Amino acid sequence: MPDYPKSVVIEEQGLRDGLQNEDLFVPTEKKIEIINALVDAGVKGIQVASFVNPKMIPQMADADKLYAELPRTNEVVYSALVLNPKGVERAARAGVSHVTASISASDTHSQRNAGMSLNAARKQFSEMVAIGKNHALTIRGGLQCIFGCRYEGRIDPNSIMDLVKEQLALGIDEIELADTTGMADPLSIRSPN
């Protein structure tokens, strides 16, 4: 029987990941109501928004305003997704203390999802971490598609480990390993390679 952790931290990402796909704009006041309900329910981590181009993701156009109106509590960590250096700067100006930035472990997925090669994404990630550290932000790095890519199939575990080591060497505070395409299974999660 594997050694499982004694506790886990669950981060609610529906305000960012769920709402960003909705056609109708959810007003800031309604988002605050949802956040208050999550806090009242005991949720300790909430990814509130992403700092992205509002023309690309209209639901996140109020990210700055939303952060200004968050209920203040030391019990909850509010975070934001950032996709580029400009997003990190904007998040810092808005008073965000925790940001998440990730890249794909797949070059094809990176090109189709982020519009840049994996090498370009790695360079940009390094810039984002430097900016975040300059603003004293807590930075969660991350890798997408670690259990496989719908375009490339299986991703070499050695490449993934190299990317993890690279991000950790930049001084990130946490790392997130994502099953972006839903290809993981219990055996692949436990397999050393």
Report the span from N to C terminus: 20 Å
* Major sheet details: 7 strands, parallel
Percent of residues in helical segments?
Answer: 25-40%
- The 3D shape can be described as globular
Q: Structural class, from secondary structure content? A: alpha/beta
Q: Based on DSSP secondary structure assignment, what is the total number of beta strands?
A: 7
Question: How many distinct helices?
Answer: 8
* Whole-angstrom Rg: 17 Å
Order of helices and strands: EHHEHEHEEHHEHEH
Strand content: 15-25%
What's the number of domains? 2
Mean pLDDT: 92
The unreliable regions are none
Describe the 3D structure.
Strands 1, 2, 3, 4, 5, 6 and 7 form a 7-stranded parallel sheet that branches. The mean pLDDT is 92. This protein has 8 helices and 7 strands. It folds into 2 domains: 8-85, no CATH class; 101-193, no CATH class. It is 40% helix and 16% strand. By secondary structure, the chain is α/β, with parallel strands linked by helices.
Entry summary:
The chain has helices spanning 14-18, 28-40, 63-68, 85-94, 107-114, 118-134, 157-169, 186-190, and strands spanning 11-12, 45-51, 77-82, 98-100, 103-104, 138-144, 174-177.
Topology, please?
Elements: E1 11-12, H1 14-18, H2 28-40, E2 45-51, H3 63-68, E3 77-82, H4 85-94, E4 98-100, E5 103-104, H5 107-114, H6 118-134, E6 138-144, H7 157-169, E7 174-177, H8 186-190
Parallel strand pairs: 1-2, 2-3, 3-4, 4-6, 5-6, 6-7
Helix pairs in contact: 4-6
What key attributes describe this structure?
193 residues; alpha/beta; 7 strands; 16% strand
